[in-house]
Amino acid sequence: MDRDLSTLMTIAVLGGTGKEGSGLVLRWAHCGYRVLIGSRDAERAQAKADEINGMLNAALVRGLANAEAAAQADIVVLSVPYAGHRDTLASVRDELQGKILIDLTVPLQPPAVRTVYVPEGKSAALEAQAIVGEGVRVVAAFQNVSASHLQKLDYPVNTDVLVCGDDEDAKQEVFKLVEGIEGMRPIDAGPLANAVAVEALTPVLLYINKRYKVQGAGIRIMGVE
Question: 74 pLDDT exceeds 70?
């Protein structure tokens, strides 16, 4: 089916009221995607959508309850704290079937957010695949992107995005979303099992931020043209 992905694809960001999720919403809406913010509270989602629309001077984003947002989307992005990961996925499992789910959740255990934590299921993305089943193509991406950089439209997010997944076509769709944000470059980081390493980089980057008093340390892969 021929279609212009930049104008017709609808992306739902569940947890889109948070810093990382709303930053991605802002960036994708700015480059032409239809974007929905999902939240447990539909009114809170619409309030954040109104805020982003004000920044863009256009009504490009809508806020909905999680299940409704997931049902209306072509691609669903999960951006929630690890503590809410399982419950959120269980609540939208039916709406996700047949779709791509991009999971950017990192299994952190506050207050030790700068220390790597490996959950029972090895990674949040692998746990997501087990929860939603084989009818959903889960891709891990965007875990290592600074929320503070995403929030500034005039700031090119000069970082590589490591993308892990078992479905090659799904990964290609995610590559397009990465490339839609100025400065980002997608890097194929292998199967979904490799998300264990990608997720573990986030607490390392948080440690680097604190140790060197910087904001938004990121990833660059050298030697890849």
Answer: yes
